[in-house]
Every structure is written in C-alpha cells, then in structure tokens.
Specification:
The complex is a heterodimer of chains A (about 80) and B (about 140).
Chain A: H1 3-17, H2 39-53, H3 59-64, H4 68-78
Chain B: E1 14-20, H1 23-33, H2 38-41, H3 43-48, H4 58-62, H5 64-72, E2 78-87, E3 96-107, E4 112-120, E5 126-136
Antiparallel strand pairs in B: 1-3, 2-5, 3-4, 4-5
The chains are: A mainly alpha (about 80), B alpha+beta (about 140).
Chain lengths: ~80, ~140
C-alpha cells in the first residue's frame, strides 16, 4: 500500500468517526484541526483505524503519535 | 454489585436483571427531568395518539443501561463512554422489563468493552436495543 492510499483510507475513517464528509487529513493534521477530536473520539478513531488496516497499536505508539503523518508511518510499517 | 476486572470481561459474557416500572418511577423522572410532555402524563392524550396508555419515558427505560454497566457488566470499575439507544416499542407502567447485556468486542489498548444490550418486556418483546462502549478502570490506583 502506498502512502497516498493510506491517507485516502484514513480520510474515510475520519469522515466516518466524526460524521463529517468534508474532513481530509494530511501529514501535519492533529486533534487541534478537528473540532470534535477529544479524548473520547480519539479512542473511537484509534479503534476504527486498527479495524480498517487490521493492525494493533501499542500504548507507547498511541501516546507519542504527534500527528496523522506519524500514524501513517506506523500503519505502513505494519501493513 | 459485580466487580469484574478487564481480564474477566471476555467476549460472550452476559449479565441480566429485571425491574418493574412503577408510577413512582415516572413521577420521580418527571421531577428530575422537567419533561411534562402529555404523552407521559395524560392518559387520554396518549390513548388518542394510539398508545395503550401513558408511555414511560424512553430515557427512564434507558436509565437502566446505567444500572447494567455500573452494577453488573462490568460493575464497580465501569466508566460509561458512549451509548446508542433505539426505542423499538413503548413501555407502560406495570411492565416488567429484563435488561440483558453481552460483551461483543474488547479493545485491549484502551480496556474498552462494547456491550450489546436488549431490554425485553414481560411478553418478551424488544423495547430497547442499545450499544454501549464502556471503559474498565484498574482495580487499584497505581
């Protein structure tokens, strides 16, 4: 899977979790960029990403992920 | 009160309990919520709208989802995070409802359970379908 393909899939995941079809994510996207992205939605988001890509994050990864680009790095390592 | 730990909460685990809906419950809910809608308070209005009698507040019936998670599954260490509820049939005063919850998913990273919940009346009709996401807190402060 290419980096671009991962971002495209993540767009769909984010749109579904936040129920907003206008959301697109990029390398630098963080929770500050999406209004409803609070700690509860972060759980929903991570679980949805795990299901979408068939991977499991560990607690260290989740707590140090600084933006969506970092999430994509991990996905590409695992997928 | 049950005190299930996250490790004890495996997919397929179920808990249930029953409760009779009383007039007093409706009055207390009305006082707390301030919902004086006639569907729940005026017999003639409710019958005119096609119901068998005053309809029990949906949110009163669904308040027993809190009982399920907080007292039974997982019980003491529960932290309710999300609830999605569908009110499929009306509930009336005197109905005996049985609340059954089953763990259908677990997420080890967040120690989160997904519960599928059904509430049935005494005629075994489904009155509420719900999905709950609940966290399970650690037993001891680390």
């Amino acid at each position: 899977m290419t980096r671009e393909e991962v971002f495209k899939k993540l767009d769909e995941v984010f749109q579904d979790v936040f129920d907003d079809e206008s959301i697109t994510v990029g390398e630098e996207t963080t929770s500050a960029d999406i209004d409803d992205w609070d700690s509860l939605e972060h759980i929903n988001l991570v679980v949805a990403v795990e299901k979408c890509f068939g991977i499991k994050f560990n607690i260290g990864e989740v707590s140090t992920m600084k933006n969506v680009g970092a999430m994509v790095d991990i996905i590409l390592e695992r997928a | 009160m049950k005190e299930y730990t996250y490790e004890e909460c495996q997919v397929g685990k179920k808990e249930n309990f029953s409760v009779t809906i009383t007039e007093e419950m409706l009055e207390r809910f009305k006082a707390i919520s301030g919902d004086y809608n006639p569907l729940h308070n005026e017999e003639s209005y409710a019958v005119e709208k096609g119901f068998a009698g005053r309809v029990v507040y949906g949110m009163l019936t669904s308040s027993f989802l809190s009982t399920l998670a907080g007292m039974y599954l997982p019980g003491k260490y529960c932290l309710i995070q999300e609830v999605n509820t569908k009110f499929t049939k009306p509930v009336y005063v005197g109905d005996i409802i049985t609340v059954t919850g089953e763990i259908v998913e677990r997420n080890d990273l967040f120690k989160q359970l997904v519960l599928k919940v059904l509430i049935l009346n005494q005629r075994e009709e489904t009155v509420v379908r719900a999905k709950m996401k609940v966290g399970v807190m650690d037993e001891e402060k680390i």
